[in-house]
Structure formats: C-alpha cells, structure tokens
Amino acid sequence: MSALQTLGGGSRCGWVLGPSLDKVIKNVAWRKHSHLVSACKSALDKLVSLSDDASDPASCSPLYGLSISDAEFLLQPIILALESGSPKVLEPALDCAFRLFSFGLIRGCEIKDSSSVIYRLIDSVCKCADLREEAVELAVLKVLLAAVRSPCIYIRGDCLIYIVKSCYNVYLGGRSGTNQICAKSVLAQMMVIVFTRVEENSMFVEFKNVSVSELLEFVDRNINEGSSIQFAQSFIQEVVEAKDCPMDLRSSYKPSQQNDDEVCVKSADDSTDSSGCSKIREDGFVLFKNLCKLSMKFSSLENPDDQILSRGKILSLELLNAIMNNAGPIWLTNERFLNLVKQYLCLSLLKNSALSVMTIFQLLCSIFGNLISKFRSGLKSEIGIFFPMLILRVLENVLQPSFLQKMTVLSLLEKISQDSHIIIDIFVNYDCDVEAPNIFERTVNGLLKTALGPPPGSVSSLSPAQDMTFRYESVKCLVRIIKSMGSWMDQQLKPGDLNQPALDDNDNSMENPTYAVDDLNSADHELHSDANSVSEAATLEQRRAYKLEIQKGVQLFNRKPSKGIEFLISTNKVGSSPEEVAYFLKNTSGLNESMIGDYFGERDEFPMKVMHAYVDSFNFEKMGFGEAIRFFLRGFRLPGEAQKIDRIMEKFAERYCKCNPSSFTSADTAYVLAYSVIMLNTDAHNSMVKEKMTKSDFIRNNRGIDDGKDLPEDYLGALYDHIVKNEIKMRDESCVPQSKQGNSLNKLLGLDGILNLVWKQTEEKPLGTNGYLIRNIQEQFKAKSSKSETVYYAIADPAILRFMVEVCWGPMLAAFSVTLDQSDDRDATSQCLQGFRHAVHITAVMGMQTQRDAFVTTMAKFTYLHCAADMKQKNVDAVKAIISVAIEDGNYLQEAWEHILTCLSRFEHLQLLGEGAPPDASFLSTSNSDSEEKATTPANYPSYKKKGTLQNPAVMAVVRGGSYDSTSVGVNAPGLVTPEQINNFISNLYLLDQIGNFELNHIFAHSQRLNSEAIVAFVKALCKVSMLELQSPTDPRVFSLTKIVEVAHYNMNRIRLVWSRIWSVLSEFFVAVGLSENLSVAIFVMDSLRQLAMKFLEREELANYNFQNEFLRPFAVVMQKSCSAEIRELIVRCISQMVLSRVSNIKSGWKSVFMVFTAAAADERKSIVLLAFETMEKIVREYFPYITETEALTFTDCVKCLITFTSSRFNSDVSLNAIAFLRFCAFKLADGGLVCNDKRMGDDPMVKDNALDGEACLDRDDHSYFWAPLLSGLSNLTSDPRPAIRKSALEVLFNILKDHGHLFSQPFWASVFNYAIFPIFRFSLDGKEPHKEDYSPTFGPSHDASIWDSGTSIVAAECLVDLFVHFFDLVRPQLHGVVSIFVGFMRSPSQGPSTAGVAALMRLAADLRSKLLEEEWQDIFHCLKVAVDSTWPGFINLLKTIDSIEVPDIALPSNEIEYSSGDGVTNYGLDDDHLQAVGYIISRMKVQIAAQLLIIQVVTDLYKMHQLSSVGITTILLEIYSAVSSHSHELNGQIMLMHKLEKICSIMEISHPPLVHFENESCKSYLNFLHEILTKNSSLSEERNVEAELVSVCKKVLQIYLDCSRPGNAFPEVINKPSTHCFLPLGSAKKEELAARTPSVLLVMQILGSQDRAFFRQYLSQLFPLFVDLVRSEHSSLEVQVVLSNIFRSCVGSIIVK
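Predicted structure:
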C-alpha cells in the first residue's frame, strides 16, 4: 500500500482526499483557521476507518462508496478550505475538488439547488474566483469544467447557470489574457458538452474538444500572450481527458462505472418535466435562452461605453456560435428548439445587427452561416429577412465599405457557395418565391460589383490593395457558385437513385455526434423531401415566371398605374373584377403609395369602381372618425388634385356612415369633416406652413356642417388634438428619408422598413428601446410562416439550373472577363479560367446556346492567338482551358465549336511559323511556274524560334496582330513591326511549346466519340473555319481542310442517317470551295461532285425522299453564286448530261435541275442560256411526264424556269418559245396532267388558303396552287420592254384565262385578279399616269416610265372586257377594280389609252346593262367621281408651281389696252429650264382638263344610254357635275394666274389651256342634267331641290358673263353710282372670252324661258337684277338680246302686267 493510500485510508475517496487534506493542514495558518485544521484532522481520522461500500449504488451518495453522512463530513473540510480565502489553502482544495469530479468520485442524481452538499462545494469553488488570483482562477475553471464534464453527476437548473455565470465573471474580470482565453474555452467546452447531451438526450456521450484557435477567430486575438492559445488548448485537453488520474485508481474505478453511474443518473435521462421534454433538454433550452438574452443586453444611456457589457455580449454570441457550429438534427426536428432559434436567436441577430462593432458583425455572420447551412428549411422566412440585412447590404456597398465587414461577408459567401445544396435551395425558395427577396440574384450582382471595383471617377475609401483583395475574393465566390451548380447538376444527372446518398448521409449523421455541413444538409433535405419535394422544374418555372411578371407589373404600375393594372389583368396575375384589383392594391407590397392614390383618383369607370371596392373593403364599425380616416389612409397617399381627393373622400364618408349609421346626420357631414381633417393634417405637419391652424380655427371652419347644426366642440377639439399630436401616415412611411437610389427590390419585398429602421441607427442602442419594431418584424415572421409560400422546397430536377444561369451568367461573364483582362496574377486568372470552364459545362449540358457561346467566345478571345506578340502565360492557360472544354464537353458545344476550332487553327499557324514551314498559299497557286519557284526556295522560311530575323510577310502580319473576329490576322493593321514586338513574338512561341501536337490532334481523333448531334455540329464548325482559312486574301491555309478529311475518315462507320447529315454539311462546304476564286480548285470540286452525283443517281429513290435533291443542290447553289463563266457552263453541261442519261431515275432531283436551268436562263452569257434552253426544251417536249411523276410540286419549278427564259435578252425566239411552253403547261394543268401527291397537297398552306369558300373543293380546284406562278409570271411579262413579248404574254394570259377559267372557283378568281390581272394595270389602280415622273431641271417626261403604247392599252382593255363579261357571274365582285382600271385609262395623257378606257367602260355597261344592279351602277359612277376628285389636287399643285415662277411685268391691267401680242416678245429673263418646266406644266394642265371633260362626257353618255333615275345615282351624278363645275370656275377665278399663263403662252408661242371652254362645257353639262331632272322627274326634283340648284347655277353663269362684259375699271360699286355713265370699250381678249361664254348664257336663257310662270314668280327677285345688267352690258352676239327680250316679253312681262 502506498503512502497516499495509507494517508487517506482504504477507500477510493480517501486516496484523493487524504493527501489534499494533509496539504491543507500544512499550508493553513493554524491560529487564523483553527476550525479548518480541526476539521481536516477529523476527516483524516475518519478516512482511516472507512472503506468502499458500493452495495447501494442507487442511494446517490455524494462520494462514491461512502454514506451520505460520511460524505458530507469529509467534504466539509474542503468547503471550509475553499472559503478560507488563502491562496495556499485554496490550491490543494481546488485540486482535490478537480480530482473528485474528474475521477467520478463525486456523484449525485441531480445537483440543482443549495440543499445538496455538492452544490455548496460548487458554490464555494465559484466564490474562489473573486480573489482575482491567476492560479486560483485557472483552478476554479478546471474544477467547474470537470464538474460539468462528469457523467456521474447531473448538474442542472440554477446550478448549471451559476457555473456558467462564474466562468463569465472569470472571463470578464480576469486580469490575465491567458486566463480569459481559458475561461472562454471552458465555456465553449461546457456548451459543447451540454448540447451534445441535449442532442443524444443522455449523459453518456462522446464529444469533441473545442479548438481554441477557432474560438479566437473573431475576438481576443489581442490578449494572446505568446503561447496562451497552446496553453488553453492543453488546459482543456487535460480537464477533458483527466490524465492525472492514477492508473490503479482508474482501473479500480472503471469496472463499476458502467453499472453504478448509469443507475445513479438514470433519473436524469428518463425523467421529464411537465412539458414532456427531458430534464437534459430542458436545461439546454434554458441555457440557450439565457445566452440569447445575455447577447441582447445593451448599454444604458448613463453608461453608453460599458465595456464589460459589450464583452459579455460578444462572449454570449461566441458561445451561441459554438453551439450552432456543433448543432445537430434536434434543432430542426424538435419543434420547441426550432422555435427557440426563431424567438430568441433570430431576435438576438436582429437586435445586434444594428451595432457597428466589427466583432459582433463577424459573429453574427458566422451564426447566420450556420443557420443557412443547417436550419434553412425551418427558418425560411427568417433567412429571407436576415440575408439582405447582414450580407447583401454589405456586399452591395462598393464605394465606402468596411474592409473587415466585407471580407467577413465574402468569406461567409465562399463557405456557403461550396455547398451546392445551399445554392440551389436559396434560388428555389427565394428567387422563385413571390413573397421572398431575390437572394441569389442580388448576391451574384453584388459579387459582380465587387469584382469590378468602384466605378471610374467615383470616390472610394479603399486602398488599391484592399480593392484587389475584394476583387479576387468575389471572383472566388463566383467560381465556387458556378462550380457548385455544376457539381449538383452532374450529381442529379447520374443514373440511379438520386436520393440514396442523402439518405445515407442522414443515417450517419444520427449516429455520429460530429455534424459535417454536408451531412446536415442532406438530413435537412431528407426531412422535407417527402412533403414538399418538386419532382420537376415545371412548377418552379411557373413560380419564377409568376414572380417576374408580378414584379414587372408592380414596376409598371409605379410608372403608370393604368398600364400596370392592364398588364396584370392581361397576364391573369390579377382578376378582372374591381374587387380583385382592390384586394391586390391593398395587400401587395412594393406598390408606390402615391401611384395608388393617383389611380384611385382617375375619372375612368374602372378605376372608380376599384376605388369604391377598396373603400368598401374596410370595416369602420365602432371606430372614431379620426381613427377611421387614419386607418383608411395607411395604404396609399392622397393625390394632389382636389377633384381626385374629392371623389375619394366622398366614398370614404359614405362608407363610414354606412358602418356607423348614428355617427352623423348624413354622409355630407362626414365628407366635409374628412376634408377638414386632411387640411388640418397638412397644415399641422407641413414645415412650409408658417401660420398653423389653431383649435378655434378648426372648430370655426366646421360650423354648421352637420345639416346646418354644429358638431360638439369637445368632439372637434379632441379630433384636432388627435391629428396635431399624431400625424396621419402610411403604414410603411418611415421617419428616415429614403435614398433616391434605394433598392427597389427591398421595397417590393417589404424589407425597406426593416432595413431603414435597423441600419439608419448610429447609437449602440437602436433596437433595445424600439419594441414596436421588434414586434413588427416578429409579426412578419409569423405571418410569413403561416402562408403556403413559406413551405421549404427541395428539388432534384436539373432544369432549375436554366433559370439560375439566366440570372447569373451575365454577371459571371463580366466578372471573369474583367479580372482575366486586368490581372496578371496567376491565382486570379486561374480562378477565372476555372469559372469559365464550369460555366461552359453547365450552359452546354443544359443547352443554353446564347450563354454557352458567350463564355466560349470570351475564352477564345483571351487566348490572344490573334495577336501573338501580346500573349502572356495567362493566355496560354486559356488555350489549355479551351482544349479541356473541347474534350470534356464536346457533346454539348454545338455552334461554339467554331470558336474552339478557330483557336486551334491559329495555334497550328503559329506552330508552323515557329518551325519555319512554308505557307499553305504556295500549294494553292494557280500558276505551276510559281509553285515550282516556291518549291525551290525553302530557305526563305527559317525557324523563328532560333532566328530573330523577319523575312516572311505572314510573320509580320501575325506579329502586327489584329482583332479576334478578323478572318486574317494583321492584314489591315498599319505600321511597322518593332524589334521589341518580334522578340515578344519569339518568346511567346516558346510559351506555346507547353501545348504539343498530341493535344491538338486529340480533339479531332476524339470526334468519333461525339454523339450524332455533336458530330454534325463539329463538322459544320470545322467547315466554316476551313472556309475562312481558304478565303484569306493574304495567307490562305488548308489546315482545317485536311482535318475535314481526317474527321470524315474517323466517322465513316457511323449509321447512314447520321452520315447523311454529315454529308449535307460537307456538300455545302464543297459548294463554298467551288465558289473559290481559285478556278482550278473550283473546277476540280465540281467535277468530283458530278461523279458522286452520277453514282448516286444509279440508285433508285423512293417517293417522298429528298436525297437526290440534297446531292444535286450544290450545283444549283454554285450556279447561282459563281462569278466564273467557265464554272457555270461546266455545271450546265454536267446537269444536262445527268438528265439525259438518268432521266428515268431522277425523282426529287428535278427541283435542283430546274434551279440550275433557272439560273442559267438569267445568265449574262448567251452560250449558257442557249445551252440550258436546249435541254429545257427537250425536257418539256419529251420528258414532261417524268417531271411530276412522284411530286407534282416540281411543276411550279418548271414554270418558274420557263418564265425566267421568257426574260432572256439574247434571243426573242427563246422568249416566245418559252411563252408557248407556258401555254402548253397550262393545257397540261387544265387537262389534269399532273399526278398530284394528295398528302403534300393537303398540307400545303397555299392550297388551304385558296379554299376560301366552305364548300368541298372539286379536283379541279386542287390545282389552284399550280396556276398561281404560271399566271403571275405571264402577268409580269406584260410589262416587258419588248413589244412582241409584251403583246404575246398579254394574249396568252387572257387566252389561258378565257379557255380554262371555267375551272376556277369564285374565290380563286378573286386571287387571280389580285396577283395576275390587277398588277397589269397597277398604274391605273394607283391613280397615277403611267408616264408621270417628277420633273427634273429638264422638266420633261421620262421616256422609260411607260412601256405600254396605245395599241397595248387597247388590246389590254378589250381583253379585260371580254374576260369580265364572259365570266361575269364568277367575277362580279371584281367590278369595282375593273371600272377603276378603265377610269384610270380615261385619265391617261395619251389619246389611245383614254379612248380605250371610254370604249371599254361603255362596252362593259352596254353588255352588262341588264345584269348590273343599282348598287353596281352606283359603284361605277362612284369610281368616276373618285377620279374627278383625285385629279383636282394634282391640278392645284400644277397651279402652285406656275405661281412660284417669276414672270416680269405681270400685273392686272388698269384698262383694256392690250399689253402684249405675239410679235417681238422676248423671254424676259426666263431661262430654258424654266421655259421647259412651264411648257410641261401647261401640257399637264391640258391633260387634266381633257380628263375631266372626258369623265363628264362618259357620265352623260352612261346616263342618257341607260336612263338611270334612282336617288343614289342622281346624287352621285350631281356631285360629279357640281365638282367639275366648281373646279372650272375656281380656275378661271384666279385672274393673276390667268394673266401669267397668257403671258407665258405668248412667250412660248403655244396655245392657252382651254380654261374657258372647260368652264363652259362643265356648266353646260350641269345645266342640261339639272334641266332634264326638273322636267322629267318631278318627284326626284322636289326631293333633291333641283329647282333651287338650277337657279343657283344659272345665276353663277350669268354673273360670270356680266363680269366678263364689264370694262376693266367698272366695278359694281362704281356702276351703282348714278353719277357714273361712262363706259370704256372692251378689248379684243375680253370680246373673245365674251363670245366663248355666249353659248352658256344662251343655254341659261333657254332653260329659264322654258319654265312656267310659278317658277319665275318664285325666283324673279333673284334673276331680275341680272336680266337688267344684261340689258346694260355689251354682247358679242345679238342672240343674247333676242333671247333676253323674249324672256322679258313672255315671262317677266306677264308677271308684271298681272
């Protein structure tokens, strides 16, 4: 037995207590602590007699193996020693307590209050720390941690809190940095132990030791005294592992531990409190809640800089962070613990988030990161609030950020981004949720802003080093995000059970107390996958689209409310009823309150209904008036316009009185009072109002408003006080002014109020006193958690990545590109290239073409292969990256292959230049002598890696560089190449040695592993790159051309369907090569194609296949595009040979054959045209049945080909024969000679369109599709400049229509007129003369403007009349168009077309007289009226042009002296150009006059011929006559213009325009028509009041005659004066005009003389003054006087006599 055992007796407790008590006795002052010495000696004596007695382990004795009384007796000396206050005594006592706890010798079922001796022991230990001795503090910490660690006792309740508080005090009051670190470590270790037991609900758990260095990550680095961290770590390890335990004691203790200890603490494990939660978890619950409360303590106003409180707060947050770091599934699965996090931890985050202390912010971010990583499924709403508050606010601050804050945020984002599940979940649950912020989108955009740095010209607080750090870290975060997205996509796309790994992780996490982030995430997903998993991305797509459209509608509403509501209703986001719109406006956040008010104030019907529905949705029952109006105005801002406010207040008053019937006498009272309240609110709270309204003013203003009575003054006074003291505000209105550039998305999602109230504060006590805000946010949490949108979604469909990429690809592209361009740091550029690779991988696999091509193109540009002299190592790395992309993602690159292959081509070019190989252009020379010369001089191409000379122009071009998109590098770049550029280029060639030929060729060899879609895309891109190489003007190359051959060889064994697609690409490439300027290459390619085609045509093709057409199409393309006559002739001969030798095998190939011959028909070489037509003639004559044997649609290709031959300018015989063949084709078509493919016909859209009538189409109508090109082609030929061709086409066209028109249905006839007949006469339908041109300085008509002569016009008009009359029943609807054509002919300046138009119209009317309806007659006359009206504006323009020409000495003569004659007249300064212009205008005037007179004549003839007398027709005729008469009178009324015309005509010696004749004839026709109606149709005359109109016209004619008969100075005013009796004689010009107008006057007299006495009695007062003036006037003929005397005698005289 050892000395220790002898000293303490034989019990295990004695082995520990004995030496410690002995040491206490030795160290204590006996006199001062005599009672302690006595107690120690008594205890030693007692120990000697004691031995272990474990027979009743359930008794839970304080000391193992001893009775309760013995245990209390032995522990009393230790307690006294701890209370002695002497450090020398405390040391052995504390060491003894530590050993007792560590070795499990102190035991107890439950240590909760002071009734237990163990509690007194712990209390004494805790009080020892008050001595502030460093050694004592460490010993106390050691004892307390050992006590909490011990599984043999259950410390809970107040005792546990007391221990934690004591450790707090050591940390806060300790003078040694090492002790503070140890205290913090002990606390953190206690948290780990306690909450690990909470997780397992057991005292016996395995837990991990805390890492002191990690614990000091944010705080207390400054108190690290050298090796304090290592000391603290060893300190924790020593306590936890209890290494000082003697081996014999440990061995003797362990066998009984499993039995006795479990029995002793069984009650602690199994017992539960009243709530059903075990005591272990209840203690954890209480401890966590207290820590949260400690973290929410704020400084008081009296002591704002309380450092102790601040450090305690920080320590609490650190401990909470440690708990969350080690948290397990219990926090998510147990509703009580989850609510604990929501109610206390989230509240702590909220309150502390406003503090500016950096340490607190770092801790908050760390805690928040744990919440996102582990508890996001249960804290969806909370995370949606805190993410913008903590992360995005700092991330989006680019100009003035805190460096440490932003680095903390970037570090957190990088950690989050490494977990793919977090990234996906954030997007799914927030960016796709209407009620949540776009966290993912804003995070990516914030990282982009950080990566780009402060905008140019802005002021930033960052140093350059800090800015570069931010940029690099943000790029790293973006790379982590895109990498995680790619990893998640690859995982989801793997075959097998995608959910199995998550399940395995979940199982492991339940067994292992150490929770990795991924494990807990998997468990998190598994917990919610059954109820809320989304199997496909369709639902998420709808949610995302719905959110975007809602946001778009809200933004549109905030700009223009009506448009926003219309958009939301049209997209079904809001119902169309006013109630639904009102509900949306009332409950949707993000709407501009002012815009809501403006919308309510609109006068339109729907907004008013919405406003009424909005007001009716409020319940003001039992509300005071002030309270009601305040409640009402919470949701919108009243508009500024008084009328709008009036309407809103009127409805409010009605609603209030309805809810409170006894409140006021009527709604008018409420209306007026509401207005007064609004005015009072503005007056009281507007700083611009200087003189405020007093209470008496307010009462006085509202006198008598209650139906003439006054409202109680007390009531009004209380209302006044209520408004003045408490301003009426909207619910979201903040006292802090919003920034104009504030985040609109925050407002849209309801976060603006929270962020403003939280972050606008500057003091350290922002939220501690603002209980209203806290309650408001908590209410938001509860409200959101109650909505269905708060359900947490987990998704496994990779399609969701499409929407994520759409959000992030632009920012990532910008960030990677800018960083890669501006930075030469290897790490930064490597990160960017990784980002590019991951981005290409995702976009390629997901099939997002635009995004994929953008990333690949940017990578290709950064290779700098297009400007090799500027290359750096990062550009070589870009080449490596792009090769990796080609190999890894080749199946998905599609069009992006072009950029990759372009880089490979340029890379190979640089390699060849470095090796000194001759350029490929030497092999493509068309001259053999040049080739031989180049072949004999290989020394001109040295290896530039070894020799720095510049001897090759190609090298100069490469060194000079160019743009990425240029087909040839350095071609157009000016300037010389400097030696420095040459040296850079040579050094860069050595850089390129990092990439060998194997990597280059591996891509092409790897093509055989590409799938069927990818190989086609690969070949397309390779062909395109090869074309660019071959077409280079300075350095054509064959690299890609040779690779095409290799690729074809590698992929020759693919199935025929795939190989056919590859061949279609290759054939197009060979066509392009056939168009090469190198004639030898082109001829070779075409001959190779001919041989291939001949072999292919040996195989018979089945119907409905298109292989032949694909094979022969290259010939047609080259024929159409080749500039070489030799190539075109070769193609014609090849096709002719194939047709004549393989005509029976040609099926779908006919289309390409006709395409070749169509191109040949338009060729510029006569030999090619004749050669092609020779074959075409043989095909039509001998092989026509083969053309439509399998496909009738080839008939249209044949027709188009023949039409092209008709336009041949080399030989008229070819054109005429082609027209004849067209007639032959029409005969075949009408005869049913086409073997139609019913299926193709049924699917053709044109055939469907032609079946306009609802009847079943006959077989003959099935061919309507084939008639269209034939007829329209002939129609176009009618405008051919060659008369013979024109006439032949016209006759053939109308003959075909006349011969086969009976086969056409009425709808088809309508289409024939539209595309075949009306275009022939388009100049007439357009209302333009066929040769009218804008006159140039020559002012002569263009001779090329019209190709129709009179003969053609006559033939065309006759043919049209014949056709129309013949098929009138079918073409009756086209009457208007046909008449318009003939009227257009009448307006022609040529005699032939005019005559033809008149004859055609008269014949049409004569032949169809009995068939035309009255409406059709009206239509005919209406067309004539339109012609009259449309002619007049042109006439006016001509007059304006005449008026603008200056002619000297033109003035109104003062007398009738003749100013000029034709003799001896000069040009008066008019040059030849003006004379020609005037001559052209005068001729046009004559044409216009003739056209109007011709229309009058036609109208008169038609009327007389058919005796039409209906009211409608008569009305139109009267309008025509009246219009022409008015036009003529208006012309003659312009005196100055008439004199100018006379002068000009005299100068030019041409006849004057017949203006007087025009007026006479128009008036004559008008008078005769009126007279005839008056005499023959009295009823119509009365209905139209013809009599009055006749008198008006007669008066006008007589007045014009009188004006003409007066002398120049004899104005009416002068004549009426009785003193004036002198008249000057008329001049010759006046006499001529008077003579010209005499017939009109005679006609008027005759018409008037034929009227009865009643007529004269009615109108004599109007006519008599004119008759008197006629008596006094001079006349050119005595007939006027004779007729006038007869009127006086027979008509006027009889009335006067009677």
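Summary: The mean pLDDT is 74.
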